[in-house]
Amino acid sequence: MPTCLINIARLLNPRENGTWEELESAALLFDERVVAWGEQGEVLEKAQRGGAQIVDAGNRLVTPGLVDSHTHPAFAEPRAGEFELRCQGKSYKDIAALGGGIRSSVRALRAISEDELVERMLPRLDRFLEYGTTTIEAKSGYGLSTTEELKQLCAIKRCGETHPLEMIPTLLAAHEVPDEYRSNKAQYLDLIVNETIPSVVERKLARFCDVFCEEGVFSVEESRRVLEAGKKHGLIPKLHADQLSDTGGAKLAAEVGAASADHLDHVSDEGIERMVRAGVVFNLLPGAVLFLGLNRYPDARRILKMGGSLALSTDFNPGSSPTQNLPLMMTLAGSFCQLSPRETLWAATRGGARALRLEDRLGHLTPGAQADVTVWDCAEERQIPYWYGMNQVHQVYKRGRLIIVNGKIIPSDI
Ligand code: NIG
Ligand code: FE
After folding, report:
1. What is the structure's pLDDT at 180?
2. CB of 238 closer than 6 A to ligand 1?
3. Any idea what the Cα angle at residue 294 is, between residues 292 and 298, rounded to 5°?
4. Distance between CA atoms of 98 and 379, rounded to whole angstroms?
5. How far, in Å, from the CA of 283 to the mean position of ligand 1?
6. Ligand 1 within 6 A of 315 CB?
């Protein structure tokens, strides 16, 4: 049955060019897709003709569901011990060098079955919806062998089939060099290129191919090799770029025509310029900066001034950003990157959809778009990042179906 949300205090629809369509005292009519929105009387008439159920939004703000375009949800265990080490002054790199970090997540992942992984992931996915997110990009990258990467991607696919949160899968076999290839990185790259990528593509388990391009992990040359191989098989490139240092990742993103380059805390002007020219989205992940106790946030104002398009993501993962709270990222991007609430909301909706190349149906509420809708427990968008870390979600609809009520998932719908 179609739904008509009435008594909307403000309806915000992000436009392609970074501006907004907005309406006060509005109504929104949708089934699986958005049918119409506008002045209440007009829409209500249409809704009644179509037999829609009328829902009172209670004078609240309505936006598209948030799109989190960079997450790593397929992990086995939290890494709270590493957090404690960091509280004692050890850095993310120190911990990785000691065999912790991503490699410890790899050991834990390999020790559990695909069924067990699905079980552990499902409750994590609830949290995304509870914070207003309706779609996430979900990476592998804790398996680091063909079988184990497939295990993660199969788990992601199965979760997507049973859970209302939509997941867009990414192969991240080049996340780290696994223990068994430490002395022969080239051989691991051969494996990714010759075996892992073709196996994943054959099973249609990923849309994107990602690489952690960073000093001490994969160089620009190595990253290029993986991304080009992925592209040859039809995977869209994206990458972790210029996070801890300026390694030239942004330039590589432009060169290979990536959908997005992510992190970018250390991106150079030349990198920005090339990304803008190539139409690569700048995906900002300020949660990782905060959680790792670092102080260099991406220069978002400069990126916007140079003509770049922003996305904003949680980077949800057990090492550098264990949170599903995308509105909190809006707070960080406001306080540390000087972005306005509207700019961060755009990045977390339409910008995320653009980073996933799914802007035709996600990230906005233009009639015809997928009816992914978040009703906020406030009347205007500034309150979303203002109440930092607090949940401001009233309701969430995914493909027109009510999933979240009063900020909590409806148990019967899981
Ligand atoms: O985006 N930088 C690489 N990957 C993640 C961290 C993953 C982990 O530590 O488990 C990131 O920050
Ligand atoms: Fe990441």
Report:
1. 96
2. no
3. 110
4. 49
5. 14
6. yes
How much distance in Å is there from the Cα of 141 to the middle of ligand 1?
Answer: 9
Ligand 2 geometric centre to CA of 50 (Å): 44
Averaged pLDDT of the chain: 97
Q: Which ligand is nearest to the CA of 321?
A: 1
What's the pLDDT at 412?
64
Q: Express each pLDDT in 271-291 by its tens digit.
A: 999 999 999 999 999 999 999
> What pLDDT is attached to residue 414?
46
- Alpha helical stretches, state H, 131-219: 146-162, 185-191, 197-202
Nearest to 308 by CA among 352, 353, 278: 278
- Using the Cα atoms of residue 324, residue 330, residue 331 and residue 335 in order, give the sign of their dihedral: positive
Q: Name the class of domain 3-64+364-413.
A: mainly beta
Rounded to the nearest angstrom, the distance between the alpha carbon of 108 and the centre of ligand 1 is 15
CB of 170 closer than 6 A to ligand 1?
Answer: no
Give the pLDDT confidence score for residue 413 in this predicted structure: 47
Instruction: Give Cβ neighbours of residue 336 (< 8 Å, ≥ 6 apart).
Output: 286, 289, 290, 297
Protein residues placing their CB within 5 Å of the ion ligand 2: 315
- Smallest-distance ligand from the CA of 76: 1
Q: Report whether residue 319 contacts ligand 1, using a CB cutoff of 6 Å.
A: yes
Q: What does the block give as tokens for 200?
A: 């994943």
Question: Which atom in ligand 1 lies closest to the alpha carbon of residue 243?
Answer: 2
pTM of the model: 0.98
CATH architecture of the domain 66-355 equals Alpha-Beta Barrel (3.20)
Which segments of the chain have a pLDDT < 50?
413-414
Task: Report domain extents, the chain.
Answer: 3-64+364-413, 66-355
Residue of the CA atom closest to atom 3 of ligand 1: 212
pLDDT value at residue 237? 98
Q: What is the pLDDT of residue 99?
A: 83
Amino acid identity of 69?
Answer: S
288 lines ligand 1 (CB under 6 A): yes
Phi, psi for 261 (deg, rounded to 5): -120, 135
